Amino acid sequence: xxxxxxxxxxxxxxxxxxxxxxxxxxxxxxxxxxxxxxxxxxxxxxxxxxxxxxxxxxxxxxxxxxxxxxxxxxxxxxxxxxxxxxxxxxxxxxxxxxxxxxxxxxxxxxxxxxxxxxxxxxxxxxxxxxxxxxxxxxxxxxxxxxxxxxxxxxxxxxxxxxxxxxxxxxxxxxxxxxxxxxxxxxxxxxxxxxxxxxxxxxxxxxxxxxxxxxxxxxxxxxxxxxxxxxxxxxxxxxxxxxxxxxxxxxxxxxxxxxxxxxxxxxxxxxxxxxxxxxxxxxxxxxxxxxxxxxxxxxxxxxxxxxxxxxxxxxxxxxxxxxxxxxxxxxxx
Length: 332
Fold this sequence. Notes:
Layout (H helix, E strand, L loop, with lengths): L1 H27 L6 E9 L3 E8 L6 E8 L4 E5 L3 E2 L4 E8 L6 E13 L3 E18 L3 E7 L4 E10 L6 E5 L5 E11 L2 E10 L6 E11 L6 E11 L2 E4 L2 E8 L4 E20 L2 E4 L7 E12 L4 E13 L2 E14 L3
Parallel strand pairs: 1-8, 9-15, 17-22
Antiparallel strand pairs: 2-6, 3-5, 3-7, 4-6, 7-8, 8-10, 10-13, 11-14, 12-13, 14-15, 16-18, 18-20, 18-21, 19-20, 21-22
């Protein structure tokens, strides 16, 4: 009798607790990243991280609430309802303006549908009290592709006179940086940082970090957030021209469709290592269909270069680029 009772209890326990365990696994699987370390950041820096969510279930999911264990972090859901097969995110922001030192927070995400379950995320970081960025990020806003924009960041350090920025690490070729010390003395150092987004920036969302490398011994590396949105003023189809193998002096013909928001003229088409020939249109149109003849004039070998289409619209110039790849072979 007793043995039968134990078996019944075990069976009931399996029925009650197994679905909960599966629910926890299901919710955990929504997040590909569950923790993030901001590293060492400056006072006032814009320090934000997106925890992506992919709804890989067959049901809509609903986020009921998001809470944090520390006021040093604010967290919100980008969208509370995420349809099956779509994406969302939990956005965590380190409150660098009011907190200092080593900080961390647990972010609890509460799902109400398809059933109640919680997922915990984690952020950590060290907020330096001796370094201030103003503004807290390099924000280029929204700009048209082919534009060049510059932003300035004031960097203030308090601690010693010999503090220096030794280098700025940057992995993007279309971002250029310049920095100079504008004040030094009384254990304070002020720098001016200029960041330029060049005409070569591709269309899309810009989310990047520059890293200041200083002469601090303990925490020499400090990130600066870069954000912006580059909108394509011109679209070229195809976006990649794959020539394949071609001999020097041979002619390769390519049809290009160039579209813009308003009527424009084609001024020039150029590509390093190629002689590009085309008949320039005489009338401004929103869509141009061009037959471009390309003759390789560079040295033999593999060639990857941007083909640049320069246009004019109401006395304003704009450019768009496509990638050209080829294997140049010598003349026989």
